[in-house]
Amino acid sequence: MSAADLVIMDEDHRRFADVLERLRSDANANLTFLQDRNGQQIAMAGVVDNIDTTSLASLTAGNVAATDGLAKLIGEKEFSILFHEGENEHLHISVVASRGILVVLFDEKSSLGLVRLRVKKAGAELGTIMDEVTEREQSRQISGTGGASPFSEITDDDIDALFS
After folding, report:
1. 48/43 Cα distance (integer angstroms)
2. pTM for this one?
3. Is 96 helix (H, G, I), strand (E, B) or coil?
4. Taking a C-beta distance cutoff of 8 angstroms, is the pair 15, 130 a contact?
5. b/e map of 45-83 (b: 16 or more CB within 10 Å)?
6. What's the start-to-end Cα distance of the chain, in Å?
7. Cα separation of 143 and 52, whole Å?
8. How many CA atoms lie within 13 A of 29 on its CB side?
9. pLDDT, tens only, 52-81
10. How far, CA to CA in Å, does 91 sit from each of 25, 27, 95?
11. Cross-strand bridge partners of residue 85
């Protein structure tokens, strides 16, 4: 089941956001966010005043995909941690449960060592939540309660009537 197939309920989102907020605080980071490998943001915590999080998520997913290609070239399964050091801001990127990407943006108020230490614990928690969501969705699909898409009943005539 791909991350795109997952249905994240409000409670799941709250659990993700709680872990991200705790990580942000414990690592003394400016921003933490979780996204799927396609670049779709799942949850975040922190200050996003001057950051286009949609672009950041998209570029991060592309970065992880490119790095996966590099890993395969040298015989590795993946590089699960990426780090970009800037003059003022730094990005720590890690793969979570092979399905998600955890991004931590931090500055001189923190250190790479502290971020890595806190990300290890938070990554495990986020992975557990992702596994639970995956299991729930798989059970739902097997039992048939997932049902068809809520949009499957909408016809072209319905859409035309809506916009005319």
Report:
1. 13
2. 0.82
3. strand
4. no
5. bbeeeeeeeeebbbebbebbeebbeeeeeeeeeeebebe
6. 38
7. 40
8. 31
9. 999 999 999 999 999 999 999 999 999 999
10. 16, 13, 13
11. 90
With 0-12 / 13-18 / 19 or more C-beta atoms within 10 angstroms meaning exposed / middle / buried, residue 122 is: buried
Residue 55 is encoded by which pair of tokens?
Answer: 């672009």
Q: Tokens at residue 117, please?
A: 């230490």
Residue 31 CA to residue 45 CA, distance in Å, equals: 6
Domains annotated for the chain, with CATH where assigned, are 3-146 (3.30.450.30)
- How many percent of the chain have pLDDT more than 90? 72
